[in-house]
Amino acid sequence: MAGFPTCPLPQGDDYRALSLSGHVGVSSLPDQLVRKSISRGFCFNILCVGETGSGISTLINSLFNTTFDDPVSTHFLPKVKLRAQTYELQESNILLKLTIVNTVGFGDQIDKEDSYQPIVDYIDAQFEAYLQEELKIKRSLFSYHDTRIHVCLYFISPTGHSLKSLDLLTMRRLDSKVNIIPIIGKADSITKSELQNFKNKIMFELVSNGIQIYQFPTDDETVSKINTIMNGHMPFAVVGSNEKVQIGNKMVRVRQYPWGIVQVANENHCDFVKLREMLICTNMEDLREQTHARHYELYRRCRLEEMVFRDIGPGHEPVSPQEAYEAERSEFYLELQRKEELRQQFVQRKGEKAAMLKEEEQQLLAKYEHQMQMLKEVNLKLEKKKKVLDDQIAMFLEKKANAELLQSQASISTPAVSLKKGKDHKKRNQGFRLELLCFDIRDEEIVTVHEQSKREKEKLERERNSPRGFQK
What we know:
This protein is about 50% helix and about 15% strand. By secondary structure, it is of the alpha/beta class. The radius of gyration is 55 Å and the shape is elongated.
């Protein structure tokens, strides 16, 4: 092609620098990127972590000089909830899709041990959604709404003493997942000397506990000086306000007190201007890049390692994703086959056990039926014996009644006799009664001695009716 110098193909990293002899248009590439980025628009996601009443909503309104629809939060939520709201902001011809994520109810529970867990889960969920979009065969990252958190504004209560255990625990859990910028909210509630001491205590505790907060980059010469200075001002002590008053020729945001006013945009009153310059005007793109290149890449690497995607093998040899997938697939099928064999063995043993239990059940059922049959036969025999015994008892009672009737009739018709004969007669009657009560049990049947009793009664009757008896 005319106008372009010819050069051999580069070998490895051996490149040569060549100067162009005329204008080609390579210098317009940044302009092309700017036009493309402007047409696409930008997205920026802010996570605000702090206790209810820390001035989060007011500060966000002050940062973007607008009023967001943020419902009032209460102190009586059973657990921490994250509420995300997305807005479209336009300044000049730049379109910004802004997402504000609030931690509703943070620090309001009695048991605060797991207050950080919903926040960690939310950040991981956004990383996972982006990773799943990347792993699709047909991706659409160009039009994908990126919801990954780019910065976390951690609001610290202006106690003037030290950080709370909840603050240290939460920031330790979040520092590897998001860019943390600590902020002292409602900083006008403490004096300047107390504020500076409070800042020093906060930084000392963060360093001593190994918590890494976001540091403004100093490798870019254009912003290295200002970022170095601003790193020394952290944590930022800020004041926000929704109230505006006119000072001079412009309306400014202020907080009014009986002794005077605190101007939000006055650097002598608070660090609000420093925070806005560093967060929006200077380092917004760096926050986006750090989120993608550092925090998301760490999450992505851990997740791909869980999926057994490796770049190197056990012997530090390069491994392609296809080889790693095939190895994992074969290992998975071996494990699946082993589980299937175990399942079949379990099913077989289960069937054998069920058959054995069924056989035992049938044996027990047969034994039960045999015992019931024997019980029925015994009951029938007992019923027969009971019937025979009842008949004999009835017969005996009938004979007893007849004997008593005969005895009563004989006593009425017989005159009085001598004492000796009366004693003999009494003995005979007693012998008669004893003979009636005698039973001879043979072959399980009751046999009464009736014949002897009958002969004795006939003898007594003859003696009574004979005239000799009276003569004696």
